[in-house]
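Retro notes (design track)

What went well: tokenization of the new backbones is finally stable.
What didn't: we kept losing track of which sequence belonged to which structure.
Fix going forward: every design gets posted as structure first, then sequence, in one message. First example under the new rule, 385 residues:
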């Protein structure tokens, strides 16, 4: 599991530098950026000292002018990039949250949102990089502390805005926050979108066995507190393997006038926004018509956004929701070397209860490259696990 200890806030560069300091190779980030159709980008990983703590820093250097980008263009860029499916899914979900927040602030469609600060190349790298670094570790769950909010005003593309920025507030609907005596933007829109989309739960400190720690630094200095994000990697301790009551929400709706094509599109949309799972159950409605129940498993931070999306994308006039708990087996990412190449796998459980599951997309690519069936690749992985 991954714990984001955001005691001084969070921004995109703080998240990325914290993940790098945690031990994720810079090469993972470099290959991700190289897969994007953006020229003249150079990444720089360094260090900063904040209140005596040595932390990682991350900067994006861009050569030449870059075109202005709308959400539809960024979304098309991500969908067409040669990136792993989990990376694309997470990155699109983060940007979608930002687009919907900016759209509500300015009264326009999310597709027409023109990202000013967010559309800059460094923010695109931060968001796609965050998705890639998390996908590399593939933690069983991500927990984030409540977020500290500064005060004051900032100057943006649209003029002077209050702190926190309106888009930041909308991104954080359903997320616990508290005020701190810091004049400045402790949580940026990019940072808010990243943690609100990726975190499964928000709590002070989860029950966990700590394995690694990383510090990511922000460019500003607050004086009263170190501008750092602490990220911890570990495993849930025995007392913490079941998440706290209400840490997840199940959202459901019954429909009897939707086609299968529309249901499939709804599932894709909900998953892109950040649903943990979506499933459809056949049902019989009160008038005897065949229908379906669409169910969505959501983190508390995404529940409101997914409820609204479910109403928007389906023919339903209402949804219901209830809080649930979830018992999760400890999981970790690993690799298995086979005659078809190195295949990434997920390892769940421990000891006699350990299970190995190959990443299906990687098995498909290996099968196509070697002219064999996917079943042969999967069997080879399981044999050598």
């Amino acid at each position: 599991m991954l714990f984001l200890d955001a005691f001084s806030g969070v921004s995109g560069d703080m998240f990325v530098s914290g993940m790098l300091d945690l031990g994720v190779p810079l090469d993972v980030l470099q290959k991700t950026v190289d897969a994007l159709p953006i020229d003249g980008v150079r990444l720089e990983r360094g260090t900063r000292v904040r209140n005596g703590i040595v932390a990682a820093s991350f900067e994006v250097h861009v050569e030449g002018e870059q075109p202005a980008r709308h959400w539809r263009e960024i979304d098309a860029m991500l969908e067409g990039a040669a990136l792993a499916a989990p990376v694309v899914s997470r990155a699109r979900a983060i940007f979608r949250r930002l687009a919907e927040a900016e759209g509500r602030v300015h009264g326009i469609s999310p597709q027409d949102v023109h990202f000013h600060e967010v559309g800059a190349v460094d923010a695109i790298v931060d968001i796609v990089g965050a998705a890639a670094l998390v996908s590399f570790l593939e933690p069983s769950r991500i927990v984030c502390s409540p977020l500290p909010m500064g005060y004051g005003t900032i100057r943006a593309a649209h003029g002077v805005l209050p702190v926190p920025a309106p888009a930041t507030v909308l991104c954080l609907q359903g997320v616990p926050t508290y005020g701190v005596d810091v004049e400045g933007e402790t949580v940026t829109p990019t940072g808010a979108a990243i943690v609100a989309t990726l975190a499964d739960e928000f709590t002070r400190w989860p029950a966990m066995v700590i394995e690694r720690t990383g510090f990511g630094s922000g460019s500003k200095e607050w004086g009263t507190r170190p501008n750092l994000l602490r990220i911890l990697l570990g495993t849930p301790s025995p007392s913490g393997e079941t998440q706290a009551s209400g840490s997840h929400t199940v959202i459901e709706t019954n429909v009897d006038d939707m086609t299968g094509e529309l249901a499939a599109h709804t599932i894709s949309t909900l998953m892109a926004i950040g649903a943990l799972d979506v499933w459809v159950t056949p049902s019989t409605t009160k008038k005897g018509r065949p229908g379906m129940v669409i169910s969505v498993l959501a983190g508390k931070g995404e529940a409101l956004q997914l409820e609204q999306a479910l109403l928007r994308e389906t023919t339903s006039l209402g949804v219901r929701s209830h809080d649930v708990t979830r018992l999760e087996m400890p999981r970790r990412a690993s690799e298995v070397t086979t005659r078809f190449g190195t295949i990434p796998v997920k390892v769940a459980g421990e000891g006699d209860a350990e299970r190995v599951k190959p990443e299906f997309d990687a098995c498909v690519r290996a099968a196509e490259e070697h002219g064999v069936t996917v079943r042969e690749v999967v069997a080879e992985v399981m044999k050598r696990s």
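Added context from the reviewer: The chain has three domains: 2-240, 248-324, 331-384.
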